[in-house]
From TrEMBL, chains A, B:
Name of the protein in question: Aminotransferase
SUPFAM superfamilies: PLP-dependent transferases
Organism, as annotated: Romboutsia maritimum
Family annotation (CDD domains): AAT_like (cd00609)
Family the entry assigns: Belongs to the class-I pyridoxal-phosphate-dependent aminotransferase family.
Keywords: Aminotransferase, Pyridoxal phosphate, Transferase
Source organism superkingdom: Bacteria
Cofactor: pyridoxal 5'-phosphate
């Protein structure tokens, strides 16, 4: 039997494909610290569970296709705290941020069209685009510059007649970069001058450290008719398993297009939407606490990495990832080695090779993405193990050479 | 700003597009009986809610991408009661049957490929296929024949070099047709002879009346490497708002393809999966009761329809829909008239025009789909209102002519 080329060409998830090595290590009794995946250990706000448990209807009916009005209005109010103003018919609730991204790609791009995306990027951008026959045109950003954007000319040189938009995450997954107001304005200018959509994945909006200012694309009035804001409760409220995402857009024509896709899949889970209503009512103080916690974790991991000769990375200012260039030739081999050959007192660490976060062939081969999502003491242990493993691996490689 | 052609070309949901007329009628104080949408009023088995309410983790984590093992194994056991045998790595859990269908289309068809589909068909088949650039090639079935399949030659004549599979629902939505074992074997033969996938939407498997035998495509050994079984808890357990669907396939290559899509969207909601584990453990006696209830409802609606001169339909033997040819020129106009002009003692009925369930232009214009999903006394009232409205409308039309 034949399979479709578009799915056949999709790479396996770089975040998940090495999991069998971790399972084998665990089978040998090794404890594995997972820095490979962004599953936070922060408690989900209790309001979520209370709302779900208080559901009293005897029939679990379809919800309305655009999302339940209570959730849309809860999200609206959340946005106003960022000075973003959406009417209730400018917001759609989706099955995770994933569906919001997929639907936005489908509604803005026909097969063969492309989107400009700064690389390294969230690896599933590749998957979503491939399965709907949209091409990713990467603009390369570098560890040495903290993964900030290249010049306007560089970006414009990537645009062609098939380019329909610019897709970017801010704060960045996997880079941890937070774009400056100047960068945001530059992208906005390019989009206006070249008539492009801006697909702004802002699911890490709250995870910004060091007192940095954050500018959302939802704050730039001049592009409000071409901006789609993608959001999700997954990281924001540590509710990854809820699968509640959303998109917001002041271009009512685009909303009407995407609503057809929403109607096609009928609705998003009713109970999870009721829970999410409460999440978006969580007081801002919650973010302050969580933020302080992640900042501490970032510092722990970053400080250990800096102790290793040859590691290159800027201290990230957002999200909860670090992309680090390692003094190795092939980071995937190193990650596998850590799971198969290395352990200290029965413990090791799993990182995520970063090559799959690039569209340009060959880039990122010596880089890993590390998620700082463990409790401080676990993370410190993991970071020390990583340092020690890396040092051993490097000296072994030198000995062989 | 420009929109993608593929979504722009999608029709608005025929099931939902006339809802504004119903809302206006309600605003005028009219009670509207909804026969336009398949939202059952049957209670969701309590085990679902209990499982959700018993969740005690403090972090709502991602579930694994293929679906939680407990649900997969619960579904496996359910299948064995139908003599269908799937290994646990041959089942994937999806966001409703909708996602299962969308992923299967993506993984079997590239843009420009087509699927053979008996029409009238579940209207969202059209939407899913259009947004991933797959064409629907209809084979027309008729009210006069109870919507049974045409001859093998007729079907084969629709196959071309771009045809990748046959997609069909059994029991049929909207037709209520249950295919005979001979029809199932005919489709299986065609698929083997022409190397096609069979995408079998069997979400109404339990809704078969009059003691009829039901044959699943999962029972035909000869095509097990080319059959994808689509399922959902929505109608089966009256849990439409759970959004738990699944696909089962013994072709491990196809499962591997679709797993990449599952990994791309990360996972299906954790709590809803836990609830669904219990649904698939519901004792078979549940279906007997529900079945008897729907059979009663079908008879009520069918008997009223038969009292109107010029109505054409065979008594459906499955699902919970009737497609009826009405003695009107344009069924959509009649549905709108029922909502805007007609009422009896402040009550009226909403039906669903069937034209949107056909791919062939012009077909179904004089047909409606009616869902018999209301309690018997409400349904009888609704059926009598429909009969009365129809008779009035027909005599008004004659007076005008």
């Amino acid at each position: 039997m034949k399979y479709a080329q578009r799915v056949n060409a999709m790479q396996a998830s770089p975040i998940r494909k090495l999991v069998p090595y971790a399972l084998e290590a665990k089978a040998r009794g090794i404890k594995v610290y997972h820095l490979n995946i962004g599953q936070p250990d922060i408690k989900t706000p209790k309001g979520f569970f209370d709302a779900v448990k208080n559901f009293e209807n005897e029939v679990l009916e379809y919800a309305v296709s655009p999302g339940i009005p209570e959730l849309i209005s809860s999200l609206q109010e959340y946005y106003t705290t960022y000075d973003m103003h959406f009417n209730n018919d400018e917001i759609l609730i989706t099955n995770g941020g994933s569906e919001a991204l997929l639907f936005t790609m489908m509604a803005t791009c026909d097969p063969g069209d492309n989107l400009i995306v700064p690389e390294p990027f969230y690896t599933n951008y590749n998957g979503f685009s491939q399965c709907v026959n949209v091409n990713v045109k990467p603009i390369t950003t570098k560890a040495e510059n903290g993964f900030h954007l290249p010049s306007k000319e560089d970006i414009i040189s990537r645009i062609d007649s098939k380019t329909k938009g610019i897709l970017l995450s801010n704060p960045g997954n996997p880079t941890g970069a937070v774009y400056t107001k100047e960068e945001i304005n530059m992208i906005a200018d390019i989009a206006r001058e070249h008539n492009l959509w801006i697909i702004a994945d802002e699911v890490y909006r709250e995870f910004v450290y060091d007192g940095l200012d954050y500018t959302s694309f939802g704050n730039i009035k001049e592009v409000e008719d071409r901006v789609v804001i993608i959001d999700s409760v997954s990281k924001r409220y540590s509710a990854c398993g809820a699968r509640i995402g959303s998109l917001a857009c002041k271009n009512k024509g685009l909303i009407a297009q995407i609503l057809k896709l929403c109607q096609g899949r009928l609705c998003v889970a009713t109970l999870e939407q009721l829970g999410a209503v409460e999440l978006y009512k969580t007081p801002t103080s919650y973010f302050k606490e969580v933020n302080a916690e992640y900042k501490k974790r970032r510092d722990v991991l970053y400080n250990e990495l800096m102790k290793v000769d040859g590691v290159v990375c800027e201290k990230p200012t957002g999200a909860f990832y670090i992309v680090a260039k390692l003094p190795v030739e092939n980071a995937e081999n190193f990650v596998i080695w850590m799971l198969t050959e290395f352990n200290k007192d029965g413990e090791t660490v799993m990182a995520c090779p970063a090559e799959g976060f690039y569209a340009t062939k060959g880039l990122g081969r010596d880089e890993v993405r590390l998620a700082y999502i463990l409790k401080e003491d676990d993370l410190l242990k993991a970071a020390k193990l990583l340092k020690e493993g890396l040092e051993q691996y490097v000296s072994l490689s030198k000995a062989k050479a």
